[in-house]
Amino acid sequence: MIRVVAAVIVRGDEILVCQRTRHQSKPLKWEFPGGKIETGEQPRDALRRELDEELGIDAHIGDEVERITHTYQDGGTVELRFYVVRSFNRELENRIFRDVRWVQRSRLLDYDFLEADAPLVRQLAEGKLV
Fold it and tell me: For residue 28, is it left (φ>0), alpha (ψ between -120 and 50) or beta?
């Protein structure tokens, strides 16, 4: 099982979403920024590192808002831990994604997210989380 952390970065009624490139697995799908937890790394530290690498920000990691275990059709299983981020330092910079957008929470369902993110996306769009 792959252990992954991701950020629900909130700005008012908008949430930051990121689109994978054509060369990544699950190409052009939308997701929340984050990545794998390295051996010996704590989840919040992993997320802080990933957000710095992917977006160039120094994030203030908030509470864990959701934990999802998902098995894809190819058999790969991921455990996703989502944390809310309401503030960060430094200017946000797209370093690895095809696209990065601030999206109104009510419009999240318009985007083609990774299967594993779908339950969280629904809850966010319905205003049930963060």
Answer: left
Q: Can you give the C-alpha Rg of the chain in angstroms?
A: 14
93, 15, 5, 89: which is closest to 47 by C-alpha? 5
CATH number for the domain that contains residue 43:
3.90.79.10
Q: How confident is the model over 111-130, as pLDDT tens digits?
A: 999 999 999 999 999 999 98
> From the CB of residue 5, how many other CB atoms can be counted at a distance below 10 Å?
28
Give the separation between CA 95 and CA 36, rounded to whole angstroms: 17
DSSP label at residue 92 = -
pLDDT score for 37: 98
Residue 130 counted as domain residue: no
pLDDT, residue 74, reads 84
Asked whether the beta carbons of 7 and 33 are under 8 A apart, the reply is yes
Q: pTM of the full predicted structure? A: 0.95
Place of tokens 């802080």: 48
Domain containing 99 equals 2-125
* Count of domains forming the chain: 1
